[in-house]
């Protein structure tokens, strides 16, 4: 039983490190931006609490300590910005070959028969549209019958009112 060479494994590991998922890079970029915001807030907090040496007695050691913290935060902020720039460049490098897709092409249309999924949805929609059409026809027929009956009843009421106005009170029974 032989062991694989270490050099080949190191090469595979380096290749995997180079081919980082773009989504992972975006996540790293998001976390870096959050760190930048946090560090910036800490810098402003330190600046707000720092007392200016304007003739007031202050402890030089305290001032030097706060100044050291401020410089450390600024140095770390610079490192974070460099990291963010590297992530940005790597994302752009990974996305150079991609053509931007217009949003209109991402919206599926019923007329577009480009995929089997669309055809399957259309075949499922056909019985539903046929059923809907039948229901609409039945409703239309019923509505027409109601309108005719209502028209006939209005005619009868008008006839009754005319006879009542003339004094003829004989009512026909059906």
Outline the structure in words.
There is one protein chain. The chain is built from five helices and no strands. It is elongated. Helix 2 packs antiparallel against helix 3. 75% of the residues lie in helices and 0% in strands. It has a domain of 95 residues. By secondary structure, the protein is mainly α. It comes from Hucho hucho (huchen). This is Mediator of RNA polymerase II transcription subunit 30. Keywords: Activator, Nucleus, Transcription, Transcription regulation. InterPro entries: Mediator_Med30_met (IPR021019).
Describe the secondary structure blueprint for this structure:
Layout: H1 6-18, H2 22-49, H3 60-94, H4 103-106, H5 116-166
GO cellular component, one term: mediator complex
Main location: nucleus
Family: Belongs to the Mediator complex subunit 30 family.
Number of strands: 0
Helical content (DSSP H or I, runs of 4+) = over 70%
What does the overall shape look like?
Answer: elongated
Order of helices and strands: HHHHH
Report the span from N to C terminus: 108 Å
Q: Can you tell me the residue ranges where pLDDT is under 50 for at least 5 consecutive residues?
A: none
Structural class: mainly alpha
Indicate the radius of gyration in whole angstroms. Answer: 41 Å
Instruction: Determine the number of helices (DSSP H or I, runs of at least 4 residues).
Output: 5
Overall mean pLDDT stands at 78
Oligomer: single chain
* Major β-sheet profile: none
Tell me the strand percentage band.
Answer: under 5%
Features:
single chain; 174 residues; mainly alpha; 75% helix
């Amino acid at each position: 039983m032989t062991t694989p060479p270490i050099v080949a494994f190191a090469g595979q590991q380096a290749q995997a490190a180079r081919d980082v998922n773009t989504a992972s890079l975006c996540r790293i970029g998001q976390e870096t931006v959050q760190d930048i915001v946090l560090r910036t807030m800490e810098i402003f907090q330190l600046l707000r609490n720092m007392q200016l040496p304007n003739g007031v007695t202050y402890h030089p050691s305290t001032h030097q300590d706060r100044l050291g913290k401020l410089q450390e935060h600024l140095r770390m902020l610079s490192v974070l910005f460099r990291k963010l720039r590297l992530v940005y460049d790597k994302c752009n490098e990974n996305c150079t070959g991609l053509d931007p897709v217009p949003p209109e092409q991402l919206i599926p249309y019923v007329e577009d028969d480009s995929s089997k999924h669309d055809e399957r949805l259309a075949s499922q929609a056909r019985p539903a549209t046929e059923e809907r059409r039948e229901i609409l026809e039945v409703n239309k027929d019923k509505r027409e019958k109601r309108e005719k009956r209502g028209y006939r009843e209005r005619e009868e009421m008008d006839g009754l009112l005319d006879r009542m106005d003339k004094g003829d009170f004989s009512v026909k029974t059906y």
